[in-house]
Amino acid sequence: MEIKGRAEENKICPLEVAVNTISGKWKIPIVWQINEGKKRPSEFLRGIAKVDRRVLNQQLTEMVDDGILTKQSFNELPPRVEYTLTELGKKLVTILWQLNDWGKLLIPEEENADDYLLEHSKTQKYSE
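The structure assignment produced for this chain is given below.
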């Protein structure tokens, strides 16, 4: 895994690495989608509004390189690829649930807080 970002020369901040690893417009929605189980790229395209195929593939590749996802390619026609969460990715799901709960504390009570990013992951499959 490549170390993402360094605040100071020759020093690594774990928080900076973590934030940089999940930075990207679609990475958190990808994690929520794949929390349901293995996914093909076409399923992400249907489940995440407005994501471009090229951008999706780039972010999936980064997440594989960072150890969050695994990619399995099948030798068949038409070609088939599936992604799954790694153990590191499953730990990220737990952290994101906690971050979601923290985010609720930041929303005034009169606002309508909605877990819309989590709507596909209500089962908390990997987060227990």
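Interim note for the steering committee: The chain is about 45% helix and 10% strand. Helices lie at 14-22, 27-34, 41-47, 53-65, 87-105.
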